[in-house]
């Protein structure tokens, strides 16, 4: 689901990234890195036993724009973009600040009205195979 979402946004978001100063030949790399950044954040929170912040985002308990978790994701993603793609930190920060909340909002809009479930989280991250043990870490949250 997350990969499909990223692919569906490639054209429009690619143009927005280019307008922010990301070279057009690197926009696909930035979008691909966004998938990894979000998945890594889910996995990191699951491994530490702290999924409440992430679940609050998708269950309507906290606005995406006012989340310290999202702020941290934006900062980490901006650092990755700058270091791996050689993009200035300022441009990387602008791109991350636009892209991460946009992706989270799109994911949030696909969350069932009953709230985020283990199955839905698995779909977001591409199935249990790609989740790196996240399912086991989350079992207690959904029982």
Short description:
This protein has 143 residues and is mostly helical. It has 7 helices and no strands.
Structure description:
This protein has 143 residues and is mainly α. It contains 7 helices and no strands. The chain has one domain. Residues 128-143 have low confidence and may be disordered.
Please state the structural category: mainly alpha
Classify the helix fraction into a percent range: 55-70%
Total E-strand runs: 0
What coarse outline follows from CA principal-axis ratios? globular
Kindly provide the radius of gyration, computed on alpha-carbon positions and rounded to a whole number of angstroms.
15 Å
Distance between the termini: 24 Å
Pfam families: DUF937
Protein name: DUF937 domain-containing protein
Organism: Fulvivirga sedimenti
């Amino acid at each position: 689901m997350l990969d499909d979402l990223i692919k569906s946004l490639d054209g429009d978001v690619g143009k927005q990234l280019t307008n922010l100063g990301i070279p057009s030949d690197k926009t696909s790399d930035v979008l691909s890195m966004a998938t990894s950044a979000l998945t890594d954040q889910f996995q990191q929170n699951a491994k530490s036993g702290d999924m409440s912040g992430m679940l609050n985002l998708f269950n309507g308990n906290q606005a995406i724009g006012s989340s310290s978790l999202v702020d941290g994701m934006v900062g980490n993603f901006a650092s990755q973009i700058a270091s791996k793609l050689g993009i200035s930190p300022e441009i990387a920060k602008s791109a991350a600040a636009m892209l991460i909340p946009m992706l989270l909002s799109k994911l949030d809009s696909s969350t069932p009205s009953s709230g985020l479930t283990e199955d839905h989280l698995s779909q977001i991250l591409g199935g249990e195979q790609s989740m790196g043990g996240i399912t086991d870490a989350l079992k207690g949250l959904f029982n």
